[in-house]
Amino acid sequence: MTNAERVGWLREEIARHNHAYFLNDAPTIPDAEYDELARELRALEAAHPELRVDDSVSTKVGAPVSTVFDPVTHSEAMLSLDNVFDVEELRQWSHRVAKTLQREAELIRFVVEPKIDGLALSITFSAGRLVQAATRGDGRVGEDVTENVRTIRNVPSFLEGAGGRVEVRGEVFLAREDFLEMNRQQREVGAKEFANPRNAAAGSLRQKDPRASARRPLSFLAYQLVDLDGALDFTYYSETIRQLAEWGFLTAGESRVEEGAEAMVQRSSWFEGHRHDLLYDIDGAVIKVDDLAQRELLGFTSRAPRWAIARKFPPEERTTRLLTIEVSIGRTGRATPFAVLEPVVVAGSTVSMATLHNQDQVALKDVRPGDLVIVRKAGDVIPEVVAAVPEAGRRRAKKWTFPSRCPVCGEPLVRRGEESDTYCVNPTCPAQVHEQIVHFASRGALDIEGLGEQRVAQLIEAGLVADVADLFFLRVEQLEVLEGFGELSATSLVREIANATHAPLSRVLVGLGIRHVGPVAARELARQFHSYEAVASAPLEELEAVEGVGPVIAQSVFQYFREEESHDRVARFHEAGLALIEPRDESTLETTLAGKAVVVTGSVPGFTREQAEAAIVARGGSSPGSVSKKTYCVVVGEAPGASKLTKAEEMGVPLVGAGEFEALLRTGRWRDSLH
Fold first, then answer.
1. Catalytic residue among 115, 288, 365, 377
2. d(CA 280, CA 254)
3. What is the distance between the alpha carbons of residues 97 and 307, in angstroms, rounded to a whole number?
4. Whether residue 272 is found in the same domain as residue 358
C-alpha cells in the first residue's frame, strides 16, 4: 500500500469511527486503537505535505451533528485537546510552551486535572438563568439537549450573581457506583449491560424524550467558564474554577495548581496511580496553563489550544481474537464461562483470559470462538470481554452453548430459581474444594502466607487436604517429602497455619465462603454475636435484624450452619484449637455512632472510602453499601451516587454534607442537613 493509499484508508476509517462514537454512542474500537490511527494519519500528513487536504479528519473535532436534535452554533468553538502518551512527551510539550512564553518551564503555573471519560457539554446562562445546553458536535455546531440537561440533578438552574451571558463547559458522566447499579438493574431484567460509563452517559443524555434522560443517574462536572459578554475579571484559570464551585457546580476536587513543569509531571503521574480511586472513570490527565494572559500568547491550532494537553494513560480496552470459550468452577460451585484469547497487552499487563460472567451474558453479547472482541481491564479488576467487533465479510462460528455437566467432576450443572448463574451441585467437586481452600487462606480471610493456588493444588493431589479444616492437622513430616518443600519451608507453613487459629471470628466467617457473605456482613455478624456458636444457633429473624445483613444474606447464613458438613467442620476447628470469637472493641474512641448505619456516597475530603467506613465502624456504627429505612443518615461528598440520593430522599433519610462528617464522628450529630 502506497503512502497515498494508506492516508486515504486512514481517513475513511477515522471518519467511520467518529460516526460510531459521536453520533451512535457505540464505538467499534477502543479509544487507544483510535488514537493510534489518528497519530499515524497526522504523522503521514506531516511527513508528506503533498498528501494534505483542507478537510482532512485530522483537523476536525468530533463529528457532524445528528438530525434528531436541533443544531446549535457555539458562541466560541469547542475544540479538542492534543494528546501525549508518556512523561517524556509531556515534558517536551512544557518546553515548547516555555519557549513560546520566553520563560523557564519551572516558573510556569500549570493546573493538572482528571480527564473524565464522558460527553462534552456546553450550558449557556443569561442573567443567571439556564437558557440552552448543547453537545460539542463538530466543535462549531452541537445538538440542542437543553431539556435533557435540566433533568441532571447537579446542574444549577440559576447562578447567583452571574449577570450577562456565560457558558459553563464540562463533562456529562456516570459515577462508577451509578454505572454499576444501572448494569445490576439491566441484569435483573435480562437486558444487555452497558459496555462502559462513557457510552451509557452519552446515550442517556442524547434521548429524544427528556423523561428518558431523567431516569438515568447522570452527573455533570464543570471545567471551563466562557465569559461571552466580557463582564467577568479573572487573572487565573483556577479562579474561574473556584467561581464555578461557588455557583454550585461540581468541579474536580483532585485538581491541583502546580508551580513548574516537574511538579506538573509528577501530579499527572499521581492521577495515573489513583485512576481507580476516583468516583468517575478517567483515561488520562489534562494539563493547562493557569495564567489567562499567557494563554492568549500561546493561542490555538486549527483543532486544539496550545496552552493545554491531555496525557493519555495506558489503554484499558483493546481488541484481540477470541480463541475458545471454557467454563471454570468456583468455590460455591458457580460455573463461570471465560474467554481464552490471543494474548494482548491491556492496562500494562498481558491478558490471555477474560471473564464472560454467566450463561445469559454470553447469549446477550453473542460472542463466539473466532470473533474479534473488545477486552477491558481496569486496575485489579478481572479482565472481561465487553463485546464482539463486527467484521464485514467474515463468517462467524456457531453460537456457543453452555455445557449441561460440570467440566471437572461430570455432575449436572443447574440454575437455581430465577438466578442467572449456573452451579455444579456436587459439594465434593475437586474444583470447588480447591477454590474453597484457596479462599480460606487468602489475605482477606485467614491470610495464611505461603498457601497459594499451586500449593493448595499440590496438597489436594497428595491427599493431605480435602477440606479447610484439614489444614490445621498438617504435620512437618508430611510436607517436607513433597516436591518444592524442605524442612524449613514445611515448618514455616505449619507455623503460619497455627498462627491462623487466633484469627477473629469475622475473618473465619469470610474464609468459610458462605454464599453472599462478604467482609461487611461478616464483620457485623461477628460484632453482634461475638462467637461462632452464637451465630450458628441464632434464629433467622435475629440474623435478619443485623444491620447490613438482610433477608437474603440471613437465609444463606441460617442454611449454612444447619448443613451436616458445617457441623463436622466446626467440630474439627474446635479440635484444632481455633478461637472462633470476635474480640470486643477496646478502642478509646467514643461510640458516638453505636447502632447507627451511616452510608457514605461520593468523595469525603481527607478520607478515602475505606477510611470513612472504618471511622464509622470504629465509633460503633456500621457503613452498609445501600440505603434502607434503618439508615441513620447519608454522608454526601463530591460526585455522589444519584441512585443513593434518590433512595434517601424517597425514604426521608437525612442527607449530611461532607463538611459535617467529622462533627458526625465526634458527636453522632450534625448541624445542617442537605434536605
1. 115
2. 12
3. 7
4. no
Whether residue 15 is found in the same domain as residue 108: no
Torsion-angle region of 305 (φ positive above 0: left; ψ -120 to 50: alpha; else: beta): beta
Task: Using DSSP, state whether 141 is helix, strand or coil.
Answer: strand
- 601, 606, 610, 616 alpha-carbon torsion, rounded to 10°: -80
Task: Give how many domains the chain has, as a whole number.
Answer: 5
Kind of pairing, strands 334-346 and 219-227?
unpaired
Task: For residues 214 and 123, state if they share a domain.
Answer: yes
Residues forming beta bridges with residue 130, ordered by sequence position: 125
Same-domain status, 572 and 606 = no
Q: Are 337 and 372 within one domain?
A: yes
What's the pLDDT at 61?
Answer: 60
Same-domain status, 299 and 326: no
- Contacts (Cβ under 8 Å, ≥6 apart) of 123: 130, 132, 133, 149, 155, 167, 168, 169, 170, 220
Last residue of a domain, one of 257, 286, 312: 312
Give the bridge partners for 581, in sequence order.
531
Nearest to 437 by CA among 425, 453, 426, 424: 453
Supply the pTM of this predicted model: 0.57
User: What would the grid cell of residue 409 be?
Assistant: 467432576
| 350: β partners | 345
> What is the mean pLDDT for each group of 10 consecutive residues in the chain (675 residues)?
82 75 63 76 81 70 68 91 93 96 95 93 95 92 93 93 92 89 80 79 87 90 92 93 94 94 95 86 94 96 92 87 95 93 86 91 91 83 87 91 95 85 91 95 91 94 95 96 94 95 94 88 90 95 87 93 94 95 74 90 79 85 84 86 81 89 90 72
Q: What are phi and psi of 600, to 5 degrees?
A: -110, 130
Is residue 377 part of the annotated active site? The answer reads no
> 419 and 302: one domain?
no
Residue 200 lies in a domain: yes
Tell me which residue range forms the domain holding 367.
317-392+412-423
570 plus 607 within the same structural domain = no
> What separation in angstroms does the CA of 232 have from each of 25, 237, 592?
36, 12, 47
